[in-house]
C-alpha cells in the first residue's frame, strides 16, 4: 500500500488524484490533505478518505472548520492551520509520495521540505520549477529524490525518455491546444474572464485556464522542461495541436521521434504517477483511432500571444528572471479574474515588471524569494495604475462635452 499526502486536495489536480485513488482503495492510503479555504469539499474528503492530518492554510477558513466540524476532529483527525502546516505534513515519516498540487510559488518551500525528508515528489505545480528550477533539481539530486511530473506534457516526456539518456535527446516538442482563444479572430485585448476560462479540451482551475488562454502556461512548461530534462531552450519547441491527442514529442539524435498519445484526461498521467514505476490496467478513457480523422499542427503566433515569447526570454536570462516572470503573471491573472484589468493588460504588466528587474544570475533561495516579493509589489503597482486609468476613462464617459 502506497501512503500519500496531497497538497491542494480540493483543487482540480487534487480531486482527480482522489478520483483515481477511489477506484483502488486497497492500493493507496491517504495520510494527509491540505486545502486553502474550500472547507466544504475538504470535509467530504476527510469523511471518505480518513486522513490522519489535514492542513488549512487560510486561517480564517480553518477557524470556521474547527467550529463546525467537531465530530470529525473527535474522530482523530489532526487539523493544522496556516501555511507552516504544509511543512509538517510533508515531513510525516510514514509517507511515501507527496503530491504537490498547490497554485503558484506557495508550493516551493513544501516541495523543498519534502525533498529534504527524502519523499518521492509528484509535481503538478509548475511554478515551483519555474521559479527555482536549479535549486529544486539540485536538492533532489543530492537527496536521491525522484521528481515525477504530473502535467500531461512533462509526464509524457518522462515516459518517452524511460530507458534513454538526456544526451540522446535532440529536441523536445511541447504541444499546446491553443486554449479558448485560438479560433477567435481579431483583437483579444477586451476578452472577458468568462470567455477566457472556457477551455475547449481540459477542465482546469481558473489560474491555469487563463494561462492557457495567454499561452503563458506553455511558456512556463518550456522553462520546466529545461530544468527537468536538461535540454537547452533552443531545443525546446512549442506547436499548436488543438486535438490535444499527442501530449508531447521527443526527437532523438538519430532522427526517430517518440510521440505519447492519450485521451485528454488528467486522471491518466495521475494514474501513471500513482502506480509508478509499474504500469497497471485502468478503466480510464482510451483512444479510438477510428474516430480520429486528422491530427493538426502549426506554429504559435508570438505576436498575438506574447507571453510565450516572454517565457523564452526569461529562461535565456536565467537567474531570478523566471521567478519574476512567474509572480508578475500570477498578479496579472488574479487582477484579470477579479476584472480589475483587461485581458490585454496581462502581457503588458508582465513585460513592464520583467523589464525593470535587476537579475541575480546565481541566486540563493533567499534571492528567489526576494525577487518574488519584489515582482509581486511591482506588478501590483501596475495593476493599480491600470485600474485608475480605467476608472478615469469610465468616469469621463459621463462628462458632457463642453
Characterize this entry briefly.
With 402 residues, the protein is an alpha/beta fold. Among the domains are: 149 residues, 3-Layer(aba) Sandwich (Rossmann fold), CATH 3.40.50; 78 residues, Rna Polymerase Sigma Factor, Chain: A (Orthogonal Bundle), CATH 1.10.1740.10. It has 16 helices and eleven strands.
List keywords for this structure.
402 residues, alpha/beta, Rossmann fold, Rna Polymerase Sigma Factor, Chain: A, seven-stranded parallel sheet, four-stranded mixed sheet, 16 helices, globular, disordered C terminus
Q: How does this model look, in words?
A:
Among the domains are: 2-150, 3-Layer(aba) Sandwich (Rossmann fold); 325-402, Orthogonal Bundle (Rna Polymerase Sigma Factor, Chain: A), CATH 1.10.1740. It has helices spanning 12-23, 39-49, 59-68, 70-74, 84-90, 108-116, 126-142, 152-160, 193-196, 206-214, 216-229, 267-275, 306-317, 321-337, 345-356, 365-396; strands spanning 2-7, 28-35, 53-56, 78-81, 97-100, 120-123, 147-149, 169-176, 236-240, 246-252, 257-261. The radius of gyration is 21 Å and the shape is globular. It has 402 residues and is α/β, with parallel strands linked by helices. It contains 16 helices and eleven strands. Helix 11 runs parallel beside helix 13 and helix 14 (321-337) runs parallel beside helix 16 (365-396).
